[in-house]
């Protein structure tokens, strides 16, 4: 009789999901644990039955749908790479994965796609949501009434029936940015926040985390408000010009999302790129350039590939193996970089 993953898990004293990740080199397993699992699997004579899994998948007509908003942004382009890898893996086993890309934030379009998926009998959905009452209701309806499991990634709506969120702990990311800002400004002066779309839950959580930590730990910093660029570089540059006119002694800017280029170009134009402290997000080529130049003091990073890969594979294991996510939250590590460790 073939050796099962559950038998290996029992022998290794770990969960079945840990065994699966270790044997497929999918990360999230300590190297020493992964080596132990592989040795046990080899000793037990484990052989993955790919052909058998593909046959079962084909019979089940397993279809996974992915909806990503702000698909045109550089970070989501990186997330897309993880999605494509997971799509290839699932489809090699006989399943189907379709990726729907939505430029900008458009809850109406997301709901249209969800309805199309229901009509085409998709088995599960992963999506990057936005703050929208009707979208929240639809997520709950799909989960409870239609029995279609939903995983959110990159941004989250906690008060819904989604089964799991994959992405950054954005509240903690905002608090991290506040701690850095407090240190590099000496805990004093006027500081502004420039965000992207006002309906983006992830960016709003970063703002909340930043504001709460500033108020709690750095009373000498005056927050002068939050402005929204809607991911437009030109708008971001204009916001900086207006801020500098209104607050000539501005000490810092926290950029929660994209439009870093517009912010930095405006600071360079005003010859303020070294004077005003800037904290941004994500290790994108454009952002790294500005760190190297000295216009950005710190970047706070997250694992983009994981946010594309993990939701697809979590749905696959839930639908095919009846393996539920180990936690409601699958957080990406928060990483801090400056010009010395890029």
UniProtKB/TrEMBL annotation:
<comment type="similarity">
    <text>Belongs to the bacterial solute-binding protein 2 family.</text>
</comment>
<dbReference type="InterPro" id="IPR050555">
    <property type="entry name" value="Bact_Solute-Bind_Prot2"/>
</dbReference>
<dbReference type="InterPro" id="IPR000843">
    <property type="entry name" value="HTH_LacI"/>
</dbReference>
<dbReference type="InterPro" id="IPR028082">
    <property type="entry name" value="Peripla_BP_I"/>
</dbReference>
<dbReference type="InterPro" id="IPR010982">
    <property type="entry name" value="Lambda_DNA-bd_dom_sf"/>
</dbReference>
<dbReference type="Pfam" id="PF00356">
    <property type="entry name" value="LacI"/>
</dbReference>
<dbReference type="Pfam" id="PF13407">
    <property type="entry name" value="Peripla_BP_4"/>
</dbReference>
<dbReference type="InterPro" id="IPR025997">
    <property type="entry name" value="SBP_2_dom"/>
</dbReference>
<feature type="domain" description="HTH lacI-type">
    <location>
        <begin position="3"/>
        <end position="57"/>
    </location>
</feature>
<protein>
    <recommendedName>
        <fullName>HTH lacI-type domain-containing protein</fullName>
    </recommendedName>
</protein>
């Amino acid at each position: 009789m073939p050796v099962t993953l559950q038998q290996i898990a029992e022998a290794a004293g770990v969960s079945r999901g840990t065994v699966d990740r270790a044997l497929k080199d999918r990360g999230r397993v300590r190297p020493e644990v992964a080596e132990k699992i592989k040795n046990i699997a080899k000793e037990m004579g484990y052989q993955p039955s790919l052909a058998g899994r593909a046959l079962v998948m084909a019979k089940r007509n397993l279809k996974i749908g992915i909806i990503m908003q702000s698909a045109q942004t550089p970070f989501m382009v990186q997330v897309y790479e993880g999605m494509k890898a997971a799509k290839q893996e699932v489809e090699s086993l006989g399943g189907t994965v379709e990726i729907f890309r939505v430029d900008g934030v458009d809850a109406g379009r997301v709901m249209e796609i969800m309805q199309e998926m229901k009509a085409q009998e998709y088995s599960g959905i992963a999506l990057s949501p936005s703050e929208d009452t009707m979208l929240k209701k639809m997520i709950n309806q799909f989960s409870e009434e239609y029995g279609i499991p939903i995983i959110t990634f990159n941004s989250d709506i906690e008060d819904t029936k989604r089964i799991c969120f994959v992405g950054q702990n954005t509240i903690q990311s905002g608090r991290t940015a506040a701690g850095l800002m407090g240190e590099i400004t000496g805990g004093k002066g006027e500081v502004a926040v420039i965000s992207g779309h006002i309906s983006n839950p992830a960016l709003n959580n970063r703002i909340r985390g930043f504001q709460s930590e500033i108020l709690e730990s750095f009373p000498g910093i005056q927050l002068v408000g939050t402005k929204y660029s809607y991911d437009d570089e030109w708008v971001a540059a204009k916001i900086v010009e207006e801020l500098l006119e209104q607050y000539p002694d501005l000490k810092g800017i926290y950029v929660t999302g994209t439009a870093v280029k517009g912010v930095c170009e405006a600071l360079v134009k005003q010859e303020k790129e070294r004077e005003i402290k800037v904290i941004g997000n994500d290790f994108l080529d454009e952002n790294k350039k500005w760190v190297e130049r000295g216009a950005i003091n710190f970047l706070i990073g997250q694992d983009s590939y994981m946010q594309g890969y993990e939701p697809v594979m979590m749905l696959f294991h839930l639908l095919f193996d009846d393996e539920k996510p180990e936690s409601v939250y699958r957080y990406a590590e928060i990483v801090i970089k400056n010009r010395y460790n890029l």
